[in-house]
Each structure stands twice: as structure tokens, then as C-alpha cells.
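Here's my example:
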Amino acid sequence: MAPKESPCPSRDARVRIPAPAFYMKFGGNMKRFKFLTHTADAYYVAYGHTLEEAFENAALAMYEIITDTNKISPSVELKIRVEGFDLYSLLYNWLEELLFYTDSERLVFSKFSIEKISRENDRYVLSAKVRGEVFDPKKHECRNQVKAVTYSQMEISRKNNIYEVRVVLDL
């Protein structure tokens, strides 16, 4: 069986990422994520009251770069389990695993529920449920094809009891 095409197979000269000031809010005035300025790729910071919430919002921001997540129906549910030797590799593997399903099954996601991030035998483990649907060009805007997650400028920090996760995606 031949692999399926990515939902946004070609990249035109204009990268369509919401303006750096664009962000999504939740619960009061806290931002979920914010796009940052980058010369060629997509760069953003995601926030959360917990590390799990920050990782969920990092995934949401990635899919907002691909399409309008408000138009994704949560009709398909997958269980995801990834591991990493540190939190950076865990974040990388989490986002790459989601991209794998986008590239191979044409799935796009809008709901992310990380059950837990734990430490097992000197490894970090993330267990989650994600919801979305198959990309439909009649319904979903094709903003960008994300080629890969990168370690470039990746940061995971905690400031004033808020977790911040910074990610650069190769477009």
C-alpha cells in the first residue's frame, strides 16, 4: 500500500502563519500559545499550568500552522504513547508522532488530552488521547506543510508557575 499524501503536499512561496501577535486564550486571560517571528520556519511558544497542558498546547499550535483547528471535528480518537530520554526528546517525539499520523493517514487533530507525563526506568513517558479527523480540502484550509519538528531554539521552562514550551517547525 502506497503512503498517502500529506494534507498540504506543496509549499508555495508564501508561508501562511498567523501573525506573531496571534494567540489562543483559555481560562481567563492566559494564552494557550503565541506565534513568534522566525525568518523561514514556524516558531512559537505554548503555555500551560502543567507540563502536560503546555505539551497539549504545543500540539494545538502545530496544527494551527497546518490548518484552522476550529474546523476539525473530533470524530477520530487515537491513543498515543511516546518516550524520551529527557523532556526535550519527549516533546520532539510527541510532536513527531502526531505528524506521522498526519503524513501517513492524513489525520489532523484539534483535541489533545495528555493523561500523564511520568518517569519510568530513566525514561520520560507521555500517554495521551488525541482527537481529529481526516483532512478534507473542501472543509479544511491548507496553510502549511510541516516537514519536521526541530531541536533548534527548543526550550522548556517554568516561569511564575506557568510552563513555557518553545518550538521551531521546519516548513
Notes: Strands lie at 23-26, 30-36, 42-48, 76-84, 107-120, 123-134, 148-159, 162-170.
